[in-house]
Amino acid sequence: MTDLPIEMNRRTLLSAGGLALLGTTTLNAEKEKNDMFYHLHYFRFKDDVPEEEIATLMKELAALKDKIPVLKEFWVGKNISPNGKGFQYGEVALFEKPEDLQAYDRHPEHRKMVKKIGPKLAGGASMDFIPL
């Protein structure tokens, strides 16, 4: 093995072993993720929206993972970066293809969340990409 800490090598080995049991390899798993389409969105809420309300809205948003089939992976989290440009929360959505983002945008559950969250936002930013 390399000069990596023993724990890192152990995790890599266990991960590879687990993936091998599933009939794939670490490299194949990475290739599959790189063939996916990523959508990121950052949220900046208005100053008068209480943190508790924001946290509740973001938990509701995260629950879309179980309601919208085109979402292959979906993460929502609080921004802890000191360089966060004022964005408080972010989401990362993983789709099989760019067209799935359009289906997600049109889905009634997503539209419902847009109506709930939108009026409370002071700003936001999005980015979509396919990994290199």
* Fraction of residues in β-strands: 15-25%
Q: Secondary-structure element sequence?
A: HHEHEEHHE
Low-confidence stretches: 10-29
Overall CATH class of the largest domain? Alpha Beta
The CATH topology of the largest domain is Alpha-Beta Plaits
Number of domains: 2
Biggest sheet character = 4 strands, antiparallel
Figure out the total of helices: 5
Task: Describe the global form.
Answer: globular
Order of strands across the widest beta sheet?
2-3-1-4
Helix proportion? 40-55%
Give the beta-strand count: 4
The CATH architecture of the largest domain can be given as 2-Layer Sandwich
Question: What's the mean pLDDT score?
Answer: 84
The first-to-last residue Cα distance is 27 Å
Radius of gyration: 18 Å
Short description, anyone?
The chain has five helices and four strands. The chain is α+β, with helices and mostly antiparallel strands.
Per-chain topology:
Blueprint: H1 6-21, H2 26-34, E1 37-45, H3 51-62, E2 73-78, E3 89-95, H4 98-106, H5 108-117, E4 121-129
Antiparallel strand pairs: 1-3, 1-4, 2-3
Question: What does the model show?
Answer:
By secondary structure, the chain is α+β, with helices and mostly antiparallel strands. The chain has two domains: 1-34, no CATH class; 35-129, Alpha-Beta Plaits, CATH 3.30.70.100. The protein has helices spanning 6-21, 26-34, 51-62, 98-106, 108-117; strands at 37-45, 73-78, 89-95, 121-129. The chain is globular and about 40 Å long.
